[in-house]
Amino acid sequence: MTATAPTLAVPAPLAETAPAIRDSRPLRLITCGSVDDGKSTLIGRLLWDTKAVKEDQAAALSRDSNKQNDLGLPDFALLLDGLQAEREQGITIDVAYRYFATDRRSFIVADTPGHEQYTRNMATGASTADLAILLVDARAGLLEQTRRHATIASLMGIKQFVLAVNKIDLVSYDRAIFDKISHDFKELALSLGVRQVTAIPMSALKGENVVYDGRAAMPWFDGPTLVQTLELATTRSTQAGGFRLPVQRVSRPGESFRGYQGTVSGGSVKPGDSVTILPSGMVANVSRIVTFDLVRNAAVAGDAITLVLDRQVDVSRGDMIVSMDGQPMTGLNFDAQLVALQPGGIEPSKRYWLKSGSRRQRVTITPVAQLELSSGKWKPHSETLGMNAIGKVHLTFDEMAVFDAYEQNRSTGAFIIIDPDTNNTVAGGMVTARRTDLGGIHREGQRVLLSLPADLADELMASEAFVARRDEADVRRVSALRAGELFEELE
Amino acid sequence: MPGRAEGGQDRNAAGTATRTDETMHTHTSEYDPHSKDQAPKPPLDPHLKALENEAIHIFREVAAEFEKPVMLYSIGKDSSVLLHLARKAFFPGRVPFPLLHIDTGWKFPEMIAFRDEMAEKFDLDLVVYTNPRGASESISPFTHGSSYHTDVMKTEALRQALDEGKYDAAFGGARRDEEASRAKERIYSFRTPEHRWDPRNQRPELWNIYNGMIRKGESVRAFPLSNWTEVDIWRYIQAENIPLPPLYYAKNRKYVERDGMLMWAEDPRFTALPGEQVQEGSLRFRTLGCWPLTGGIRSTASTLDEVIAELEIATVSERQGRAIDRDQAGSMEKKKREGYF
Ligand SMILES: Nc1nc2c(ncn2[C@@H]2O[C@H](COP(=O)(O)OP(=O)(O)O)[C@@H](O)[C@H]2O)c(=O)[nH]1
After folding, report:
1. Residues of A in contact with B235 (CB under 8 A)
2. CA-CA to A24 of 20 to 30 Å: which in A228, A428, A466, B270?
3. Which domain holds residue A220?
4. Does A16 score more than 70 pLDDT?
5. DSSP readout, B200-255?
6. Residue B29 belongs to a domain
């Protein structure tokens, strides 16, 4: 796929037909840009040049196209139009998914519009994405929108960015302009903790550096095309951490068989492994992994399996089967970040449903801070979080909840919030940590919670004695003054 | 509130032990994984494996969260893949919900024979529904026109069948790549008690966490194949050796050319229009439906490999064979709002 951009009106056929086997999982990506940066043109161009557009659809394209651009190319953006309502209003709402493939890999693009509902739509599209393409108009450079999009993408756990410096044809393919924008962007990305950034100068309209390279117009650029970058991007895998199986259903086709069905959402498992069932804490050993095709000798993150245990234990939908080592956090109180998705926002002290994995339970949400997207700063906020707000919150449960930190596991650390009045999905969230809410010295179950002045807390936590007994105690940093007060309360 | 949502945890909901009808399934696929004689089937490539895992996850989630799911079975290749995935999802149990076929009375006989064979072979609960109005008014696509026929015998029939069965979730084989209006379709597509689909009133879907909470009378359509493309479907059929109705394979068939469509001409109800010549030639079908509305293509691809080879060079999208949405863009959306699947 290194041929130079062909004569524009007739897209050259891609190299032969695709082979029957693709050696990697589909890459999920999201495209973000402000209105008119050329996002629709870029996606349309990707579909067109990878031959994802069929002949009759292309014919419909020219039929529907009332405006054709100066180059006599079809308006690629029209390939993406889905719904009449939107077309009438001339805006795109919601998230659309597009599919294209090269001979090396297939791609699922979450296409999210750049207008005012961007946060909610972007968060939705980004939740499953491995990579984000951030589009900027070469004439305008980075905008406040760019920062917003990058912030949301990184917040949702995306670790790979592609900066598409689009409409490079309109700035005479000026290298200095590209260098300046990509330099600025890399700094921005770094400030968000994103290190994997590929910047590409491109003309989505002309198809330069999208699927075909733009060497003829930009001899100075020797980096990869967009598609080459996407082919080499990594898909996230949570195979490293502990084993996690949220139980979706219990299969009991007969007296002799009892299997727990679910999708492995972390780590791996093999027959003979010892596992714990959460929240009950019961233990068992894995006797078999059953799938339709064969009895497997191992299963890894992503596999949909049926697990058989070696003894009768009480396991039901909503439970999580986990490895004995490296267990997830359990508790009644967690810290999380969430995105409010509906006009009613997220109200403090209202009881919602929270669904994570296969488990649904009651929760109360206490807002703590709200992210100011223009500056990237968190501002204290304890009121209702309005639609599109990104908030830091405390989650309080009636019954034991089980999570990993989202940073560690994007599956067992994620949740949605459902409004019991409307049944609508009103927020998506990510757990950051388990929270120990109480001051002073308490016993909660078998764990001791210590509130100590910060310097003492740090010293204690660094000590070997403490590390060895990490499971028995939690330390919370407070000011010396507050520690004194707590002590007095205890007295 | 859905009944099962009240009162805290849903841990004892349908997913656990209430499905007493679920009996051990005898494994009868062509490939018997438990036989020592056969060479092991090569593992799926990671791409298809990921799609398969996702679909199985959706099947299990819906089966566990809804009171009365049903699978819409239209006998085509997508339905065949859907059925195969359902069998995988619930193995070693049998498929824990019925298959619903809306029979318009105008399906190819080869489809009906295939349907009954599958139901028998895989021990499925098959529900066949025909709109009684069709019989009483002798509705035919020829005399009543294709859109009236489709409205009554397909759209209205589906609504009736779903109401009658009190199904609260219906699996369908729709894919997002099929048509532009489907690109924004959710995995769980929410329907009002009147079965209407309101594009403005769908729930955001984040990660793979699906919101299955509905009120009484409301329902969802669930689409496990949302992220599959047509090529994926064919590759999966090939990799998994999934049986398909013979109509997909080229064979000598009688047909006429009508309105640019190759119409099958072997049914007793077929009458040639003045000037029409019944021809005979090697024909196959890319999609299956009512024979008067489903155009064939001239092809000699009579094996799966040949069909796929043809597909990979073909540039005409599959829906073109269907008379139903050959008008302007947006027609599917209208159909969908009205409850056409
Ligand atoms: N010259 C030039 N114009 C472009 C390029 N990409 C997009 N455009 C034009 O910019 C306008 C907005 O593009 P569109 O894809 O609709 O933007 P969106 O709002 O981000 O989806 C259209 O007129 C496009 O033809 C490009 O690379 N070069």
Report:
1. 20
2. A428
3. 27-231
4. no
5. GG-----TT-------TT-EEEE-TTTT--HHHHHHHHHHHT----GGGS-EEEEE
6. no
